[in-house]
Design the sequence.
């Protein structure tokens, strides 16, 4: 870093630097022993040229090309979408070039622990809630009213509350869309954060209860109850009775010491800015490596935001079979764009661009840092569940609601969500919002849970990783609630790719 609180040069080979505060035309910077005069105003998170860059020459950030100059760019000039274009195009061929770096896993009785709920099937939850999973969107309000009534009278020392997650699906769906809905909802039924589950059906939907039971598979009838509201006279009375039975069952679970190797943590970013790849995403990557080093699991999704940085992940595949699975993961999502005649690389979003991200390569190189440096051990389809320890990649879009839901459905007890722009959104599980900059953390205290902006304020990475790891253990142990829990922001969304009848 150079000139604390002014600019940062991320990699020695970079020909741009990132402003850490709003800068004015004429401001002086001292970079690599040279003095640079800014030729125009540049906002925080945006890039300034520190070398002459000829038209057609690559813009280098993170040590990688993030696009090429569309005109000659002078030293001190603003570098952004007005003078930079992506290098990405179409489907690519890939060669497995494995990264031979060793990654140590710690084992034994000395692992850190958290206070979790050990379930009868051996899985571990970080909350002990009652979840209402409705098979169809027509009864969202019925579920909502049941939750309100149940929470008013809830008296159970070990139960953290009753929750439901509204969605518009489960009827008028065909093919893969119905399958996606059943997989996501079925996985939520099995989620270890739920001590008990009431599956609420209407009765005439495509995803009717008897069919949905096939998607759920084996279940404990003491833990999972079913109610079809068309089949009873008073669904509120019947529903409350079933919830009471579930509360009594779930109240039998208590927190106990569990090794952190039982944690499954989802990795997600949304509303990125120019500091995302400098602060929050590297912090999450360092946390991921630390947790995996203890034998835990993390899951990285948002496949379109791997485009342009996919080879970094491919070369960390544990073997050639996994490498080929990553290739299919990437190319299948490109085919999805192409099928609908949409440009594969039409990204970043307007909010991303306003925050300082110019091309998809730049965004992806920042995004994949959430996965740290651990080997990629498994590839999960959309609606898949975590089966292997270590780092897994999960098929899913960049959309915040859809991808966070997919992470929760994969079995992640907590989701880490980095953001430079901010969002109040939260998924079914504790959703930890991590700001890329201090200004956002101070302005949106009801949204942001942890400030990674300290990394550009002379707080060392090692120190902040320890602080963050301790914070996550507190969240997992129930000692701290995330803002999405405190303010009731718990939502789900399901991927859709077909006809609605």
Sequence:
């Amino acid at each position: 870093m150079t000139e604390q609180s002014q600019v940062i040069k991320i990699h020695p080979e970079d020909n741009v630097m990132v402003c850490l505060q709003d800068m004015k035309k004429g401001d002086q910077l001292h970079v690599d022993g040279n003095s640079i005069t800014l030729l125009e105003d540049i906002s925080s998170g945006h890039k300034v040229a520190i070398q002459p860059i000829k038209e057609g020459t690559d813009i280098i950030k993170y040590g990688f090309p993030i696009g090429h100059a569309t005109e000659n760019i002078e030293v001190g000039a603003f570098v952004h979408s007005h003078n930079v274009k992506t290098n990405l195009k179409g489907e690519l061929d890939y060669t497995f070039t494995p990264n031979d770096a060793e990654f140590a896993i710690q084992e034994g009785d000395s692992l850190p622990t958290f206070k979790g709920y050990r379930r009868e099937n051996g899985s571990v939850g970080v909350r002990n809630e009652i979840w209402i999973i409705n098979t169809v969107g027509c009864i969202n309000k019925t579920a909502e009213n049941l939750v309100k009534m149940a929470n008013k009278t809830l008296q159970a020392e070990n139960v953290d509350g009753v929750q439901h997650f509204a969605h518009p699906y489960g009827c008028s769906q065909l093919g893969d869309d119905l399958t996606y809905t059943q997989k996501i909802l079925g996985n939520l039924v099995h989620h270890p954060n739920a001590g008990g589950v009431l599956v609420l059906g209407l009765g005439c939907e495509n995803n009717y209860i008897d069919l949905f039971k096939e998607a759920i598979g084996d279940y404990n009838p003491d833990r999972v109850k079913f109610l079809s509201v068309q089949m009873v006279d008073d669904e509120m009375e019947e529903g409350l009775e079933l919830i009471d039975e579930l509360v009594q069952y779930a109240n039998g679970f208590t927190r106990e010491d569990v090794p952190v190797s039982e944690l499954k943590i989802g990795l997600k970013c949304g509303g990125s800015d120019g500091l995302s790849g400098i602060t929050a995403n590297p912090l999450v990557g360092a946390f991921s490596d630390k947790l995996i080093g203890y034998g835990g699991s993390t899951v990285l999704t948002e496949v379109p935001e791997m485009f342009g940085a996919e080879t970094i992940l491919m070369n960390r595949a544990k073997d050639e079979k996994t490498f080929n699975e990553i290739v299919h993961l990437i190319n299948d999502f490109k085919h999805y764009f192409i099928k609908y005649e949409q440009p594969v690389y039409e990204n970043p979003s307007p909010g991303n661009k306003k925050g300082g991200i110019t091309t998809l390569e730049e965004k992806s190189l920042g995004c994949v840092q959430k996965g740290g440096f651990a080997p990629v051990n498994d590839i999960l389809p959309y609606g898949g569940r975590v089966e292997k320890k270590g780092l897994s990649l999960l098929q899913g879009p960049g959309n915040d609601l859809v991808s966070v839901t997919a992470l929760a459905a994969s079995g992640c007890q907590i989701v880490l969500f980095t953001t430079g722009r901010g969002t109040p959104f939260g998924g079914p599980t504790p959703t930890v919002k991590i700001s890329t900059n201090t200004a956002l953390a101070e302005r949106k205290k009801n949204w942001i849970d942890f400030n990674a902006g300290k990394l550009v304020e002379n707080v060392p990475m090692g120190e902040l990783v320890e602080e963050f790891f301790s914070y996550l253990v507190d969240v997992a142990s129930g000692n701290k609630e995330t803002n999405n829990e405190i303010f009731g922001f718990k939502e789900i969304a399901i991927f859709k790719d077909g006809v609605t009848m």
Notes: The mean pLDDT is 94. The two ends are 56 Å apart (CA to CA). The CA atoms of residues 226 and 486 lie 28 Å apart.
